[in-house]
Amino acid sequence: MQTVLSDDQVQFKHVVHRFFDTHSTTTAVRALAETETGFDPLVWSQLSETLGLPGTHLPEQYGGHGFGPVELGIIQEEMGRTLYCGPFFSSAVMAGYALERFADDAAKTERLPQIADGSIRATLVLDDLNHPSQVGRLIAANQAGALTGSAPIVLDGCSAEVFFIVAREDSGLGLYALAAKAPGAEVSAQDSIDMTRKVARVTLQEAAGTRIGSVTPQSLNRFWDLTSVALAHEMIGGASRLLDETVEYTKGRYQFGRPIGSFQALKHRCADLLMNLEFAKARLSMPGFVWRRVIKRPFIPVWRKRWPQTVLWRWRGPPFSFEAVLVLLGRTTRTFGLNAQNAMKYCWARPTGIALG
Amino acid sequence: MSHDGIKAALEGFLDAEFSPDLSLVEWRKRLVSAGWAAPSWPDAYFGRDFSQAEALVVSQVFAERRVVGAAQVGPRRLAAETILAHGTHEQKQRYLPKILTGEHAWCQLFSEPGSGSDLAGASTRADRKADHWLINGQKVWNTSAHHADFGILVARSNWDLPKHQGLSYFLIDMRQPGVEVRPLKQMNGHASFNEVFLTDARVALDDLVGGEGQGWAVATATLSIERQGFARGRSQGAPAPASAGRVYEELARELEIDNEPYTWYPQREGRPDLILQRAQETGAIEDDAVRQEMAKLVCLTEAARISADQVSAHQKSGGQGMLPAGSIGKLGASVIARQAAHVHTMISGASAMLSGPESAFEGVIAETLISVPAISIAGGTDEIQRNIIAERVLGMPKEQRMDTGPFRDIPRNGQ
Is residue B46 part of a domain? Predict the structure, then answer.
């Protein structure tokens, strides 16, 4: 079990930290939040070409760098910390892991390198992010691979160039590829309270998809493990930033003749937040997945995601009374956490026999 | 010395010197002379200057060979490590060996009825006389005081200075007429703590630790060591190796006395280890709400364990910040204990209130429920831990104090 980052990983973290500090400033975030596509193509190409970030966790044989959840987690934390606006999670993480887990070898060989080098921005269309255990209810594929149905929440749906779609077949689920502008595909932006993460509805009317793989319950579980760990890291980054900024604020804000941080009530709330945050970080320091002896299921990723969410849920007051960045942080993590939390809850209720809140 | 070298040297020593027919004290004296009793202590004081990793090799050899080590359990180690950090050369020579051999048992005399969380507000008097200190006052929550030979005592030697500066730290002989020990009965039926009444008790001038007025600094060291014990879980001194021989018999007897105050300590930690079994045998595991709460508990215990390991690793590599790191662990232990008690209540229902022959799990569940409140209080309350975390880790501004003047003038209880 790895409890501290290696020297290489620390070095990597510094590089990534500097990059997002520079390119994902509050000003940049606010500006991108107002746009429809929600990302800066120049920054995307820099993080793809110069830093190679989208390929970090993808296998070397398919054009990736062959690293794992720890390195991906480092990137996600820095993105969470600076509210990076861009299709990294949708393309590199969700679409990337979906290809890795579900696609056949030919499709992986053809498509993963383009995800890994950022030259293609894809997104995964899961018909119901709220009910992953019921994936396949809303979008179906017929024998010829024509896809019909509508998914209400697709990350970066408006800016993605390619959709990978999980659809219900006669028996089981299949993975399909479809160009975003293909006939039969209609994309409409969804308004969301989280302006840093663009969401769209994707409606398919007998759109001609290319079948590229099968989705089994086991591979879907593993996919959820990996993506939820990445998401948890992002939320840790946001939570850390939020706590830091809040504590700093309490030192300088005066009421009743003294800094508000000198009041015990606030000290105790901050201390509890720090404890929760440290515990969340401790769990995320485990690079693999823990197999619990009795249940024998990797349910750790779910609560890895849940804890940072809890940290942010507790912070009710200050984010809405000062800087917009904190509003953005608060909103971002609430909405995404909300979606993913519900998703995770349902996903894990049945397989593990322990419903996780 | 390499790890293999250590192993070889120790095994050679054991082969030559150990016999189960020795008395416990005689065997330990040999360990102390050879520096094997406390190998991580300084070479100059009964140790071998070993690192934690090297000391671990020693422990492993002891375990494999089922050999008895130095005395471990209870306040004796708090006293030993404090004396090592702040004592004079002469105090170390005089007291440390008998702590290791177990010849002396120790207790801690810090809290008073009028000063618990406000530890620096102690009002037990220490009056300097020509050739001794005269001690008058009352201490409380003194584990093992009933069989202690010595105590580590915090008392006030100066009433005109601000409170922290007027404290002094002493080593006091518990077996003198001026020291009276009375047990305190707890709501869980045990009597692990005592009150200690000091009436014209005497402390030799040589038994002042750290200089007059340095008591707070020395006490802080003791508290830090104590707090780390909470986070890692108390080790109750391993059960005596089941072998025949005088040394083992005497060890068993010693452990029985030493461990007696702590028999309910696993229950005050909430017994999360029993949750799954209880849930399964009662069928409560089928209940969605119970599963949710169990999952929350697992999240907490796993995270706290990993976090404690990380803190430990950081400190062993020379990291700073002992006191605040211990506070997060201690606070976590409280949160876990309360969640565990909550889940036990959900699982056992009304049966959890029975404590007689029909009680669940031979009374352990009931004992857990009424023992858990202690963990939020002992060793620094949860609220104190939160203040420490906020002020020393997060750097939040301290509150304005009302007690910075001469201690004599500060409002106190019972005035």
Answer: yes
pTM above 0.80, yes or no: no
Kindly state whether residues B312 and B362 are assigned to the same domain: yes
Q: Does B117 touch chain A (CB under 8 A)?
A: no
Sign of CA dihedral B221, B225, B231, B236: negative
pLDDT digits (tens, 9 = 90+) for B179-217: 999 999 998 889 999 999 999 999 999 999 999 999 999
The DSSP result for A41-71, as a single string, is HHHHHIIIIIT-GGGTTS-GGGTS----HHH
Sign of the CA dihedral running A74, A80, A86, A91? positive
How would DSSP label each residue in B193-240?
EEEEEEEEEEEEGGGEES-TT-HHHHHHHHHHHHHHHHHH-----PPP
Domains and CATH numbers, chain A: 7-116 (1.10.540.10), 122-215 (2.40.110.10), 218-352 (1.20.140.10)
ipTM of the complex: 0.70
Chain A contact present for B287, CB below 8 A: no
The HSE-up count of residue A29 (CA atoms within 13 Å, CB side) is: 24
Q: Is residue B204 part of a domain?
A: yes
Give the C-alpha distances (Å, rounded to integers) separating A148 from A165, A183, B21, B119, B385.
11, 12, 85, 71, 58
Q: Of A28, A40, A37, nearest to A324 (Cα)?
A: A28
- CB–CB of B95/B54 below 8 Å? no
Indicate which CATH number applies to the domain containing B207: 2.40.110.10
B275 & B384 share domain? yes
Let me know whether B282 and B173 are in one domain: no
What is the percent of chain A where pLDDT is above 70?
A: 77
In this prediction, residue B198 carries a pLDDT of 98
Contact A294 B276 (CB under 8 A): yes
Domain holding B31, by residue range, is 3-70
Chain B residue numbers with beta carbons less than 8 Å from the beta carbon of A254 are: none
Residues A179-225: tens digit of each pLDDT: 999 999 999 998 888 889 999 999 999 999 999 999 998 899 889 88
Asked if the Cβ–Cβ distance from A262 to B396 is below 8 Å, we say yes
Query: Are B273 and B377 members of one domain?
Result: yes
